[in-house]
């Protein structure tokens, strides 16, 4: 009976260890709807928690409707990375959208990709609705 109990315990420990190793990459931030004014700016913040040994190089970006935000005069991105213990790291990516216009309204998501393991993660949707960009009926006439 002791041998059987030991085997079950060993199996549980191996499953937990195995599950931890597979948790290579996770994105953390809350879903939101933002209503900034036209001409202002808005910041989108994403935290990627990942296992450096399993993931290798990490690429984290903000996208609007599956297109990476790359225009340097329009988007300002800062990156901060900390070691959170062992092989785990936390990378914070903040992208500021400058001088908002009607074209900036839409759905944004943070995406991440591990170069070594090829694991990917797609975050929740942040909806940006720029105020002052939709004409009401009185302004149209």
Kindly describe this structure:
- The protein has a 5-stranded mixed beta sheet. Strands 1-3-7-6 form a 4-stranded antiparallel beta sheet.
- It is built from 3 helices and 9 strands.
- The longest helix has 21 residues.
- The chain is α+β, with helices and mostly antiparallel strands and 141 residues long.
- The N and C termini lie far apart (86 Å).
- It is elongated.
Describe the structure concisely for a colleague:
The protein has 141 residues and is α+β, with helices and mostly antiparallel strands. It has helices at 2-22, 52-55, 137-140; strands at residues 25-28, 32-34, 42-51, 58-64, 67-68, 75-85, 88-97, 106-114, 120-128.
Order of helices and strands: HEEEHEEEEEEH
Strand order of the largest sheet: 2-9-8-4-5
Structural class: alpha+beta
What's the N-to-C terminus distance? Answer: 86 Å
Strand-residue fraction? over 45%
Assign a percent range to the helix content: 10-25%
The main sheet comes to:
5 strands, mixed
3D shape: elongated
Please outline the helices and strands.
Layout: H1 2-22, E1 25-28, E2 32-34, E3 42-51, H2 52-55, E4 58-64, E5 67-68, E6 75-85, E7 88-97, E8 106-114, E9 120-128, H3 137-140
Parallel strand pairs: 2-9
Antiparallel strand pairs: 1-3, 3-7, 4-5, 4-8, 6-7, 8-9
């Amino acid at each position: 009976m002791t041998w059987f109990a030991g085997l079950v315990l060993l199996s549980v420990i191996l499953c937990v260890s195995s599950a931890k190793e597979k948790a290579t990459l996770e994105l953390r931030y809350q879903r939101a709807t933002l209503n900034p004014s036209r001409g202002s700016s808005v910041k989108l913040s994403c935290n990627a928690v990942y296992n450096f040994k399993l993931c290798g190089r990490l690429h984290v970006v903000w996208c609007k409707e599956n297109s990476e935000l790359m225009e340097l005069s329009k988007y300002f991105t800062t990156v901060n990375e900390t070691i959170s213990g062992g092989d785990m790291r936390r990378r914070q990516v903040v992208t500021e959208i400058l001088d908002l216009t009607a074209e900036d309204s839409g759905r944004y998501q943070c995406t991440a990709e591990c170069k070594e393991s090829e694991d990917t993660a797609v975050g929740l949707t942040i909806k940006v609705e720029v105020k002052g960009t939709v004409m009401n009926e009185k302004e149209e006439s």
